[in-house]
């Protein structure tokens, strides 16, 4: 049973902040150092100072990214830059964007609290592996701030979109926020505090299973934080703030839900050579060569089309290599992989392009084990195919592997089977902004101050 409930969000005070575009940010894990600086420069109250504070060479145990984030959070609360809403509510979000085919689409979801459940309970299901370093980072930030600064992005099955119908029908007419975000997307946030609508949403969600889309590190952090706080507050009970976590929920049937591919860029694989690799890959893969022949734009377009066509026929991936003047599309041969070659793979995992790349290519052919892949900086995960090609062609990276997007139904099948995809198997778009809502999870927070 998925338990959701409305909450009194901490939000930017419109009397203090007139332009929301200047204070929100993307999720922490897709922000480059250059983007971090731009967000710092955008506004002195940009949420980046809390969500992803800048490291300094002079950082100490007493003055570091986490202590500075906490100081900013408490200072902004005391100044009224951030304030807590007076009544619990759900927060309906609408994001308007242009898809890869040039069509205007709107994704709808809502911010809510979700009861923190262990994965074994089968209520909240993951689909990706996580990085150890990211979980440690998010735990330290939660401990310092006593808050969920950014939401987990999660999906739920709702073929008829009943939940969104209830929320849309009960939302207040005037949005709390309406602005164009730093990525150029139109954002609207509406309050839903009607008691009947709130109760109906809780009822409709009660029989749903929740699938994590983005935010696996944050959800595992929520479990770790809950367990830590239970030890500190053994009498707090099931409604304690740390028993819940802030999530953005979107229906799997929402017409605005999009998944982009998540390509792999390996900057430091210095000895990689495309011809040698293809020789080792030949027992497993057929491949198509796409010569560049001085016309990079034409070759890009052919690579994109060929990869999509190969994906409709079977499991495949693209290859870009620094020393080669060609692109390649590799397709798994029927019957080329025996059970012992898949090691631990089960059921629906074997149907995934990303598992073929991880299990057969990275691990078996290139010898890059899980410990190597767990290092944050050994692989860069990029959703833009052109960026991958450019970084390889300009010598900033040695090799790039290109993938077709994982489908929503594949995410659902893997999660329902209790299985886990490789890290960064999906790139849900648009990303959910940080800074629209914040949730307090530390029972020691000074609530009367926040309500002022």
What does this structure look like?
With 452 residues, the protein is an alpha+beta fold. It folds into two domains: 4-259 and 430-450, no CATH class; 262-404, no CATH class. Helix content is 32%, strand content 22%. It has 14 helices and 21 strands. The chain has helices spanning 33-42, 48-51, 65-79, 132-145, 162-170, 195-205, 216-232, 274-281, 296-313, 353-365, 370-373, 385-393, 408-416, 447-450, and strands at residues 4-5, 10-12, 82-84, 90-98, 104-115, 124-125, 147-148, 152-156, 177-180, 186-192, 210-214, 244-251, 258-260, 263-266, 285-291, 316-321, 326-332, 380-382, 399-402, 427-429, 439-440. The strands form five sheets. Strands 1, 4, 5, 6, 8, 9, 10, 11 and 12 form a nine-stranded mixed beta sheet that branches. It has a six-stranded antiparallel beta sheet with strand order 15-17-16-19-14-18, sandwiched between helices. A hairpin with a 5-residue loop joins strand 4 (90-98) and strand 5 (104-115). Residues 447-452 have low confidence and may be disordered.
